[in-house]
Amino acid sequence: MKNFIKLFSALCLLLVAGNVGAKEQIVVETNGTSLVFTVGDNGRLYQSYFGKKLADKADYASLPLGKEAYLTHGMEDYFEPALHVNHADGNPSTLLNYKSHETKACPGGTETVIYLADPVYSDEVAMHFVAFVEEDVFKTWTEITNKGKSAVELEKYASSLLHFFAPKYYLTQYDGDWAAEVHKHTQELYFGKKVIDTKLGARADMFTPPFFQLSLDKPATECSGEVLVGTLGWSGNFRFTFEVDNLGGLRVLSGINPYASQYKLAKGGSFKTPEFIFTLSQSGTGHASRCLHDWARKYQIKDGEGDRMTLLNNWEATYFDFDEDKLVSLISDAKTLGVDMFLLDDGWFGNKYKRHSDTQALGDWEVTADKLPNGIGRLTDEAAKQGVKFGLWIEPEMVSPKSELYEKHRDWVIRLDNRKEYYFRNQLVLDLSNPKVQDYVFGVVDGLMTKYPDIAYFKWDCNSPITNIYSKYEKMNQSHLYVDYVRGLYKVLDRIKAKYPDLPMMLCSGGGGRTDYEALKYFVEMWPSDNTDPVERLFIQWGYSQVFPAKVQCAHVTSWNKSASLKFRVNVAMMGKLGFDINLHEISAEELAYCKQSVIDFNRLKPAILAGDQYRLVSPYDGNHASTMYVSKDKRSAVVFAFDIYPRYGEILYNVKFAGLDASATYDVREINRADGSVGEAKAYSGDYLMTVGLPLFTGNKLASRVYELTAR
Predict the structure, then answer these.
(1) For the whole model, what pTM was predicted?
(2) Which of 6, 187, 312, 654 has its CA 20 to 30 A from that of 602?
(3) Cα separations (Å) of 40 from 37, 46, 56, 73, 458?
């Protein structure tokens, strides 16, 4: 809070405009945070405050004016603008004056819309702010409308602009690559510009997910510090810009990456930017995460408060080498394991070009006749007999050059006629800006569901960025492709959701290449990474948990890193949405019994893990151990996972302090999910003791894990 007092005191002295003559104030607030705008004497809109909610709303009248709320190109500002419009007469400037605003109730809180307009060119901007009161989360986006007489071109069009003023700024970003997602890096920001962006089109998050943490004054910890956590709901190219100016002020701009994406607006046309979702925590990153998790489950994720299915995937058991009999046997294995669903992965389609590897057949979504002579129907029937659901892998946005679809419809493919094609994973991207392609992609799902209505789940993959960047459909508007591709994808997903509202789908993109909250309106969960090494997953799941709840993080037990015990691998996977991707016939009877017990344990613990509050107790980044805790909403039950990764010889071990419990309650604590099937003796502790003194959870054993269940008396 003190940082913002300094901000506005300084701005009073530095800005020519003051709060004298201020016409009106607009307050957007949750239970914990306020965002205050003031209309200046010059008719423009300023951000006067963003911080902890003040007890007396009348105090906002004493705030200095602040900085302009949605800065534009071509006027008196010298730094990165939120909006840059090129007009038909060549004038690239925009000036926005306040027109009006309105506030109305909406699910979870209020929506405030502030209307701004250019008095010369009739450009209009509507700034939308949704405040989720209990969850302390905001959503914001802009709608830009061309009310002039001629078409205009949008050069830059941010979803959000937020201003800060603090002695120091620390930016934490998460970046990496395929199988190395969300590596954490923190740096101090100084004068100048720091940009995090992607230019991949599809599979846009392959190198970095669309979220960040910004600490004010000092680096935030799990439990302390003032920190902004923000994420963009957009499944394509995005950009976050952090710019410190000559006076020490910081502006944060979020939105679609304008790279190669200038967008023409016809007379009367409007452009709606993606939603920027954010929360400002006064007590560290853990609190911010829990706010976002609560908000997402309640308002954003498809079936966010519903159950999730455990599953057995065939991929590591068969890869592309399977037939009908082998799959029927694996469906029986799913029943034996006790999971809810069997998932058939890649390799089931194509006849002229059979899908025997990733080199061909994408686009030809017909069942391979000699692999599955009785079609998918034999498999769904067998699943029904075994009492499990049946799920199927698809990748409908992509095409193999060696496919019937490519031979028939090269004009549907994003490609350059006059250059050699460049392939990523031996495939190309279909042009979803084209309505005919949208119909085709919708038809992939619709056709399968019509023919095989017992399909209960789709794993929707997207393995390639956009290469050979040219659209036959866009013709003279090539700079629209990156934006219209994503909009086309959403049109397809809207149609699927409308026709099959209860159909769950996994959001997969060659691992974590598509991890955003707009996509999660259509998908119940996501695939964080193709890397299922349990040690690496400790870091990957830690990173994604900063913004996304465990409910959407699919975590599978595989054969990666056999140096780790099966128990260690299972325990890591139990911290997300549990699945198995192993050959049950390659493990011992004792290990199979352990896996079956783990499914039972996970199902019992779901209210805490998938719907409760997550507390990151010990970070894998801090040393040789890690621990994460989940507490049910009523605080009556909890589960703690503890991992020894690579402890040092003779390392001094300290107690792990729990969090989120009822201090006045007494909890029975016992170790569960032991490899030998036994359960530890229950010991009673007060919640106060567990959170103040803690328990010795760690050992000196390499790649060892333990699970503790807490039950209130």
Answers:
(1) 0.96
(2) 654
(3) 9, 7, 22, 19, 53
